Amino acid sequence: MSEVTPSIYVVDDDEAMRDSMSWLLEGEGYRVTCFDSAESFLRARRDEMRGCIVLDVRMPEMSGLELHEKLDSLGSQLPIIFVTGHGDVPMAVAALQRGACDFIEKPFHNQDLLDRIQRALELDSEIAQRRQRDNAISNRLGQLTQREHEVMQLVVAGKLNKQIADELEISMKTVEAHRARVMEKMGVRTLAELVKAVMTLR
Amino acid sequence: MRVQIAADITDRKHIDEVNQQQQKRLEQTSRLITMGEMASSLAHELNQPLSAIANYCAGCIKRMQAGNYRFEDLLAAMQKAADQAERAGKIIRRMRDMVKKSDPKREPISLAELVDEARAFADIEAQRTGTQIVVELPENLPRIVVDRIMIEQVLLNLVKNGIEAMNSVPFDRRRLFIQARQTDERMLEVAVADQGHGLAEEDVERIFAPFYTTKPEGMGIGLAICRSIIEFHQGRLWVEPRREGGTVFRFTVPIEEEDE
Question: Is B58 part of the contact surface with chain A (CB cutoff 8 Å)?
């Protein structure tokens, strides 16, 4: 799996805001990519993008809120920090309710923005890790045979080997063999680990 | 023999007067609206260069603290910050030019007349919200010496705030009082009292500060402007809680000097 370097995507129609934001964030050691409109960000967007978006609410053409909606419909999980002017606060609250990551009101304190970016990046890496883990688990699940899958469901449901044998009308020995195969294929050593893996996917 | 020809022109004269008054009101309304819009767009426009300046400076500070920078980079950033400061200056200058066109003009005027005019603007809002505006002015008040449009603006602002403050009380409580009294030989005190939700104690102090607001979509401009208008007239503007619930705003304005 190719690692994509996290970047901060600044979407703002004001040239000075974009330029000064890059200067500030690059000074903190972040990678920054700027876009002068929601449309140009959408054109460049890729599923594997990592990092966060710093998004101006007020832009001509497509507004920040509309971009948020569009990204949602595309299944993007990049955290968004909305940058609002005075009086846009109700707008920002609406965005938060729709699941935006955070918002900050202009004029803002630099440290405030940097803290929010830090939080957004942490959230992004959590999301990425979860996605990776989920993918790994579903890959492993895909390798189970039909029978192994049945046994696993019953094991996870807390049934004893004896009960499973009765239910599936197979011998205890066969159950034990299936069970061992399940543990091996799923890459877990204990029952607790197996339950946890299956639960995270649900 | 004498032939008399006469036509009753009272009606026509009256219509002309009404037309003229309406025209005047229109002009005043547009000016009131422009003040509000101007303040709002000023804040929005200034935000851009100010935020950019802050970003450039913070970026410079960070690099200098880390001791990791190229002189030319810092120089370029500082130049851009200076450009943004100039941009902010231009915005302010443009706003000032707009305001300069309206030098205040003080003239003697009766408070009743002024209240009537301000009420004409507020009535739409009052009707929409079912608020009753009760004007209680004593007879024989001396005339005041003020810029009529400015003081109308203050009155209108206070009346609108009062109406807004009552938008969650029952309809029969939605009454707003405009009262006045002479406090001494120099000043007249005007009170605008509502029976609304009242003010939190900490807000009594802060409510006149620019950009402080208790309204979800407020700019925090109205009362700050009102206070500077009243102070420009050597008066005072303050707020008190009402014993019966609600809030009362009071301001003083100078009265006409009598030549004796």
Answer: yes
Inter-chain touch A20–B62, beta carbons under 8 Å: no
What is the Cα–Cα distance from A88 to A102, expressed in whole angstroms? Answer: 14
Tokens of B47: 């935000």
Each domain of chain A, given as residue ranges in start order, spans: 7-130, 143-201
Kindly state the tokens that stand for A100.
Answer: 């935006």
Give the gap in angstroms from C-alpha B90 to the nearest C-alpha of chain A: 15
Residues B253 and B190: beta-carbon distance below 8 Å: yes
Q: What is the set of domains in chain B, with CATH numbers?
A: 13-100 (1.10.287), 107-254 (3.30.565.10)
| Residues in chain B within 8 Å Cβ distance of A105 | none
Check CB contact under 8 Å for A20 and B219: no
Three-state DSSP class for B108?
A: strand
What tens-digit pLDDT sequence spans chain B (260 residues)?
666 666 666 666 766 666 666 555 555 554 555 466 566 667 777 888 999 999 999 999 999 999 989 999 999 999 999 999 999 998 888 777 665 555 677 889 999 999 988 887 777 778 778 888 999 999 889 999 998 888 888 898 899 889 888 888 888 889 999 999 999 889 999 999 999 888 887 787 778 877 677 766 566 667 877 888 888 888 999 999 888 889 999 999 999 887 54
CATH 3.90.550.10 fits A7-130, yes or no: no
